[in-house]
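User: Can you help me understand a structure? I only have the sequence.
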Amino acid sequence: MARYLTTDNTSPAVPLADIPELPYGELYDDLADRLAQERYHLAHYFAREEGERLRFYVILLDDADHKILVSSFAMGYHDEAPLPSLTALRPAAHPFERDIAERYGVRFDSMPWDKPLRLPADRRDRRANITNYPFYTIEGDSLHEVNVGPIHAGIIEPGAFRFICNGETVLHLEIALGYQHRGIEKLMAATGNRLRQSALAESIAGDTAVAGATAFAEAVEKLAAQAAPEALVTERAVALELERMAMHIADTGALSMDVGYQLGQVACEALRTMTINTTQAWCGNRFGKGLVRPFGTNKPLTAEKVTMIRRNVAEIARRYNEVRQDIKSSPTLLARYEQCGVVPRAEMLRIGGVGMAARASGVERDLRVSHPSGIFARGIAHESIVKRHGDVMARLMMRCREVLQSAEYIDRMLESYAPAAQMPRPDYEQGLAPDSLAVGLVEAWRGELCHVAVTDGRGRIADYRVKDPSLHNWLALALAVRGEGISDFPICNKSFNLSYCGHDL
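Assistant: Let's start by predicting it. Here is the structure, written out as tokens:
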């Protein structure tokens, strides 16, 4: 029997009955071997209750062959025998095993990071809470701890950061999250109202509304075996690239602010406003909420809006490129950004880093290349921008280059685009395949966003699982600050700009 069911990011949902169910030892050995190879990484790994047992689903991405590999194993719901920990061999598995342990009480033998992940309200062990979080400690007369958070200055989400320092030098940073847990996955499965599910999907992380709604829409459309029409695919792609531009410009401004480069800060704030106002002029919301819906749209592009978007994007790109050139030619800025917060390529691979942060360290993890969907599967052959230094400067230059690339893509997509005379409206009643699993994979501006929908025998979404790219990349931030001065933490943190709520769900 084959160990995996093989599909891709454009194919319909797969029946649960067709997903192989292996002995854990066999799947464990195979995963350990595959994850040692750069071409493979975990998109998701989760468990769900099926009667008196837990069935564990593994969604493995083959980046070389553009394939999605799906497999599973099962154990009795009340079985207390520990499972060998995959994290002990492949650290990239740690958030998945921690989530499963926290949710269901499953024990993983030799798990090196046996700690809470999100502290959800329905966690198995209610004794575990943020007040007794087991932070690592290091003893030494010259060492001291610095606690930051969970409440931070300004309008920012909560998270606890504990530094162990020798003088001003950071030896270790541990990040404890879970303050933002809202039970999103349970809310998605608790309602059969697909409009409400769409609204929930775009609210998981407010700065990733378009990507979240797109991942949900694609998963639902796969469950219905109904591909989106070409015009709708194009408009979703334009919205995604506008979101990418807005957030990368905002982060450029934030990094400029933290090193006192006020011209860059002010210029980027103005350009970010211009970008999100362009989205608002299109759909009525600056963050693109309500723009992406399954099977259709309520906000189709018109010829006038196409002209407006192309004009605005060209002006934004022109002015933003001036900021980029100033940053690249400023010795003061380069002195702060270069060789600060380095995450080597080998470490980024080891922890399973994804998206823009991974590409800044030389790891080409980009779904638009490895697992394309939408316009990147139909019309545009995306070329990833990859840096190799893995420092704050590399992550900033990634943003700069991607803003200009996104502007080029938008112009290319809209240059000959003729708005459809009759764009389909959203369909919230479309029947879905029963007892099936669908994966929505979208390269959001932070990186790989994975939504998994599982239906019951009536075709109703019974389980919904979300993996934000921040789930992988928070550990990269912790590694980036080792050996740096604690005063450099703000720019290291801004260079990743990870999502608390995307992680906590």
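Now, to help you interpret it: The longest strand covers residues 40-50. The mean pLDDT is 95. Let me know which part you'd like to focus on.
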